[in-house]
Every structure is written in C-alpha cells, then in structure tokens.
Amino acid sequence: MKLSELSTGVLVTGVGAPPGLGTLRSLRQADADLKLVAADINPLAGGLYEPGAGRCVLPSAGNREAYLHAVRELCALQGLDTIIPGSEAEAAALAPVARQWEAEGLRVPVPDPDVLEFGIDKGKLLARAAEAGLPCPVTLQPEGPADLDAWTGGFPCVVKPRCSRGARGVSYPQDMDALRRIWADTAEEHGSCVVQTYIPGGADTVYTIGSLWDRGELIVSTLHRKLQTNPPTGGVAVAGETVVDEALRDAGLAVLRASGPWHGLAAVELKRPAPGEPAFLLEINPRMWGFGYLMTLAGLNVPALLVRMLAGREHLAGHIPSTFPPYAPARMVRTWQDIALPPLQEGDT
Fold first, then answer.
1. Where would I find the ATP-grasp domain in this sequence (predicted)?
2. pLDDT confidence of residue 23
3. Whole-prediction pTM value?
4. Any idea which architecture 138-197 has in CATH?
C-alpha cells in the first residue's frame, strides 16, 4: 500500500534544519500523494517553501502549552494523523502527551520522557553508558569550580554543556587555567557542563548510527560518517557518506539498548580516532539525524518506513531491503538552494 493509503497526513516540524527538511523530502519522494504539512518556528525557514507541502509557523516548543495547543489544533484542522518532530525540544514537549494523543488517534513517534532524557542530557547519558561498561571519554561532571581540581583527563580537554545542540558552547581548554575560565563562562551561559578527554581526529572520524524502533524493538539501523562539518572543529555536517562496519553499528546500538526502550527515531554519535581503536560515545540525537536524506539516496527511506511502522508493522513487509547493509554506497554534500518566496499577503509578517 502507498503511504497516502496508510496515513491521512503527516506534520513534519523543524523544517528549517536538516533533520526536518530531509524528512519532508524523503516522504515527498516516497509518495507524492501523501498529504504533508511543513512547520517551523521561523517563518523564513526554507523547508516551509518546499513544493508539495502545506506550511505552518508554530510557537517555540519552549512555550510548551502554546506549542502543544497549536500542534493539536493544526492536526485537527488539516486532518493529519502523524507528527514527526524535527528537534529535541519538540520531542521533549510531545513526549509527556504522546501516549494520550495516540489513544485519541494521533501517531507520535517519541519515547517516554525518562528515555528521551538520555538524548537531551549528555551527563545522564554518559553516566548510564559508564554503568553499562560502554567506551566513553574520561568525563567529569563538576557541580562547582572546586570540583575541577579532580580533572585527570589531560589537555587539551573538552568543555560542553550537558544540554545543547550541535557545537553550541563547546570549547577546548589547553591548560587548567583555561579550563577554569572557560568552564565558568560556559556554565553561566549554558548551565551545567561536563569536562571530557579530547578524542583526536577530524570530522571523518565521527560516525552516526541511525535507528528506527517500535517500542523497544529495533526495526532497522544505518551507519554513516561525516566528511566535513561547519565549523570544521565540529557541528552541522555538510558532507557525508554511508559506511559498512558491523562493530561500529553494534557499538551504537549497545548505547541505545542501555538507555532504552526507544520508540521512533534515534541516532548515536561515536568518534573513533583510527581504525581498530575503540569508538567513544559522544551523544544521542532523539530525532531524525541530520543526514537522514543520505539514506534515502542510498535506497533506504527511513521516514517512509516510520510512517509504515506507525500504521502497523505488517506494512513494513517488503519495504526493508534484505541485503546487509540495507542501503547502497552513497555520498552527499549539502549546498545552498535559492528559493523564491511568495508575495506577502495582507496580514502577513
């Protein structure tokens, strides 16, 4: 069956960033008849002007009550039965109401709030991974400046907020004086921070294990690596390629199993300095990963599989390739695309 026969319509949020935009394009490519509505908090987000989709500007998920009201009203007005959140903040807003909304006929593929926390709080995730004996960088979670005296991981090291996106707030102190100064500044701006051993290697040593789960049961997993990021020291990937490496894939899935049960989409980032060396945990992204569209190009349309899974596992039959891995070799680079906006109408801003 076509996706348009399995769903009355899909709301894809966060379309101003690669995860949401890639999801939107993947679904449009899977079935041009599937009703799609693109949403973002930014009225100038490029994904709002993708062909073949309606568009809506949503309140920030930081205003949870307003955000949930707007999403629920939009789904009712547009006759949508599926919501695919494109950001951690939106997943966090939806998680507490997801099961209730599902009972009312809305499909919301996010895990329970206590599991979702592992994809938002790096400190909580690293503690769980360490308990499970999984490879992690040496990590210190200071509660105050005096706790920095306990740092034994050497220099340069890494300071990063416990809760952040991309490379926001990430710094690389070269000595203890710099660590004290940078930790204080970062904690003041971003809240609680962790200090970690610096793992050498460029963007091409960072691997992403993407996965689709049905209430704790793995449906499919993927593996790719970054080839270039912006900024070069780490951040949004601008080029990447698919990878075949069972050990890396299994290492990422072990992190997800230790922190689950997951539901919907989740991606683990690992950094392996060189072939044959351990791969160290960086983070979990509890949403579609930024290079999800790479897998669509490689023959595995994960957003389409998600819609099928939510409609019933029986609709996945014949749609996941039986090969290992279930995708072909592929490379992708992101580039600018100029989009002409429609003229402003009276009342628009």
1. 126-311
2. 98
3. 0.95
4. 2-Layer Sandwich (3.30)
